[in-house]
């Protein structure tokens, strides 16, 4: 008889104990989960914050490096041309991009493009050649988005030679366009 009563007692009490234990455990787990979520969230927030700050800092460093590069490229203000040519050489594309970026960012800035020629050829021809060189650079800058109102051109022909010696190297120096701000 006592075994039957003990069995009945266990059948009634055991589920209650299990339920009680699971409820308590559930509350603890919920509290623990919330606690860990909060901690995780805070850590994620911190982690995200750190990552964001790191990415922002990295991006800022990239921007500063690009600005230094652009400023260095803008130091180059002379473009040289082939004999009797007005085509811009590929090595100057990056330089002109830096100048155009500056001019686009500063709409009030203006540039004068001076065209020059070596002393071979008639004065009239050299004036026209210098003008075509200056206009070639101006057109390139306009194609990069610079407003035409920011650009003016002038041709000096052979008048302002960098090197007055009559060597091929001197002639090459004098075939140029100069960007003057």
UniProtKB/TrEMBL annotation:
<comment type="similarity">
    <text>Belongs to the Pal lipoprotein family.</text>
</comment>
<keyword id="KW-0472">Membrane</keyword>
<dbReference type="InterPro" id="IPR050330">
    <property type="entry name" value="Bact_OuterMem_StrucFunc"/>
</dbReference>
<dbReference type="InterPro" id="IPR014169">
    <property type="entry name" value="Pal_lipo_C"/>
</dbReference>
<keyword id="KW-0564">Palmitate</keyword>
<dbReference type="InterPro" id="IPR006690">
    <property type="entry name" value="OMPA-like_CS"/>
</dbReference>
<feature type="region of interest" description="Disordered">
    <location>
        <begin position="23"/>
        <end position="48"/>
    </location>
</feature>
<dbReference type="InterPro" id="IPR036737">
    <property type="entry name" value="OmpA-like_sf"/>
</dbReference>
<feature type="compositionally biased region" description="Polar residues">
    <location>
        <begin position="23"/>
        <end position="43"/>
    </location>
</feature>
<keyword id="KW-0998">Cell outer membrane</keyword>
<comment type="subunit">
    <text>The Tol-Pal system is composed of five core proteins: the inner membrane proteins TolA, TolQ and TolR, the periplasmic protein TolB and the outer membrane protein Pal. They form a network linking the inner and outer membranes and the peptidoglycan layer.</text>
</comment>
<dbReference type="InterPro" id="IPR006665">
    <property type="entry name" value="OmpA-like"/>
</dbReference>
<feature type="signal peptide">
    <location>
        <begin position="1"/>
        <end position="24"/>
    </location>
</feature>
<keyword id="KW-0449">Lipoprotein</keyword>
<keyword id="KW-0131">Cell cycle</keyword>
<keyword id="KW-0132">Cell division</keyword>
<comment type="function">
    <text>Part of the Tol-Pal system, which plays a role in outer membrane invagination during cell division and is important for maintaining outer membrane integrity.</text>
</comment>
<feature type="domain" description="OmpA-like">
    <location>
        <begin position="68"/>
        <end position="181"/>
    </location>
</feature>
<dbReference type="InterPro" id="IPR006664">
    <property type="entry name" value="OMP_bac"/>
</dbReference>
<keyword id="KW-0732">Signal</keyword>
<dbReference type="InterPro" id="IPR039001">
    <property type="entry name" value="Pal"/>
</dbReference>
<protein>
    <recommendedName>
        <fullName>Peptidoglycan-associated lipoprotein</fullName>
    </recommendedName>
</protein>
<dbReference type="Pfam" id="PF00691">
    <property type="entry name" value="OmpA"/>
</dbReference>
